[in-house]
Design brief:
- This protein folds into 2 domains: about 190 residues, Histidine kinase-like ATPase, C-terminal domain (Heat Shock Protein 90), CATH 3.30.565; about 120 residues, Ribosomal Protein S5, domain 2.
- It is about 35% helix and about 30% strand.
- The chain is built from 11 helices and 15 strands.
- Strand 7 and strand 8 form a beta hairpin.
- Helix 2 runs parallel beside helix 7 and helix 10 runs parallel beside helix 11.
- The N and C termini lie far apart (about 65 Å).
- Bound molecules: adenosine-5'-diphosphate (ADP) and magnesium ion.
Amino acid sequence: PQLANQIAAGEVVERPASVIKELVENSLDAGATRVDIEIEKGGSKLIKIHDNGSGIPKDELALALSRHATSKLSTLDDLDAILSFGFRGEALASISSVSRLTLTSRTEEQSEAWQAYAEGSDMAVKVIPAAHPVGSTVEAVDLFFNTPARRRFLKSDKTEFTHIDEWLKRIALVRSEIHFTLKNNGKTVRNYRPAKTSDQYLQRLAQISGKKFAQQAIEINCEHDDLKLSGYIQSPYFESPASDTQYFYVNGRLVRDRLVNHAVRQAFAEHVTGAQASYVLMLDLDPHQVDVNVHPAKHEVRFHQSRYIHDYILQVLQSALAQVGQ
Ligand code: ADP
Ligand code: MG
């Protein structure tokens, strides 16, 4: 299974940031409210994810490290949702096949914790006693140590850090109720405290997108039929330098979509010239009204009623901007 896992790893695990994405998504799936990320040397030396989620029962630990061992596929109806989020039950096995990985976990029901790791050419999984609070820690050491071509493909530690940091921003903006920390080479460099009120969210926004944007941002909060658009956009009076704060989420997933971009740009067209306006927006709609698995890596989506969605976004933003303009 080692080779098969490594081939699968080529698809799941491109670089440290993609390892972290898979592991943190697992933590969130497990209901964690706090996720601590630790990396060394851009993640190539160490990636460690600690969460306070449900944990994994001892007798499921070994299974979690083997391929296609997802606990998340229970009904055929789930299949849609699972495919779109890339849940294929192979992230842990893949990462384990290209690093020295340990998975340590404890559930509420267990009085002691257990640690699993795969060893040898057959990747036989060993399970040994460990100390750990309720939740899980995944530690991946020496990423790509056994796949030198991939390891050479890694960029500088600083570049890999930037990818990780950018990914963390994306998730922190939309999963604002989660406490995230990031430690880089022994130093805590990000601490996103749980944001449950608008004020707390604006603090997180300030950390991520700068004080200037957070101070003058206009709150969007509009529900219409089964559509909901919420978040923050920049004020029409705000002279913004070129900004990289353009985040649009559909049902919690970041998208880069032409239709969405067009609607947002058009809303700002009479207010902001030159530089692109800043925004962090979340669109929530019936999952049956959108295909999010068009291309997982490109963040594209396909709305079933695309014209309707386009005009909805446009109108909500236009009227918000007009109100400020009065
Ligand atoms: P998938 O997420 O697609 O199910 P993974 O390989 O990412 O597959 O994980 C395999 C299984 O291991 C999951 O289905 C889940 O049951 C368990 N698991 C992984 N990480 C965690 C975690 N942090 N907390 C609880 N369970 C986890
Ligand atoms: Mg997973």
